[in-house]
Amino acid sequence: MTLLPVDPASPEPASEQLRRQVADRAATGDLPVGTRLPPVRTAAEQLGLAANTVAKAYRALEAGGVVVAEGRRGTFVAEQRDDDLLRARAEALAAAAAGRGLSLAEAQRLLERVWPR
To answer: Taking 80 as the threshold, does the pLDDT of residue 88 lie above it?
Structure first.
């Protein structure tokens, strides 16, 4: 499994970029259920990040139900329930909107424009 590089010039923290990347890829099926994520140190080396940064992203992914950590066995993409999937996509929308400087009200207006009637 290959992690995509994070953007060091982005105002979004690297841990959030990594969390969002994995959550989005799991939500779209690009990372199928059961896919093993690289160990924290390996991912940190591949991405040029501190191990603590990767660990923070992995903890957030686990807290969000996107991955499951199985100790020494590793960290794996978890089966996504419908509400988990929607939450992951909502988080991705929120992070993208905030990253572009939109306020919550502006993001809500965007969602309202595309909401099915």
So the answer is: no
Q: What is the pLDDT of residues 23-79, one digit of tens each?
A: 989 988 899 999 999 999 999 999 999 999 999 999 999 988 999 999 999 999 998
Q: How many other CB atoms are found less than 10 A from the CB of residue 15?
A: 20
Residue the block writes with tokens 């060091």? 8
- Strand order through the sheet with 67-69: 36-37, 75-77, 67-69
93 in Cβ contact with 87 (< 8 Å) = no
Collect all residues with Cβ–Cβ distance below 8 Å to 46 and sequence separation of at least 6. Answer: 2, 3, 38
Sign of the C-alpha dihedral computed for residues 93, 107, 114 and 81 taken in this order: positive
Contacts of 42 (CB under 8 A, 6+ apart): none
Residue 75, strand partner residues: 37, 69
- Helix/strand/coil for 75: strand
CA 3 to chain centre: 11
Non-local CB neighbours of 111 within 8 Å, separated by 6+ positions: 93
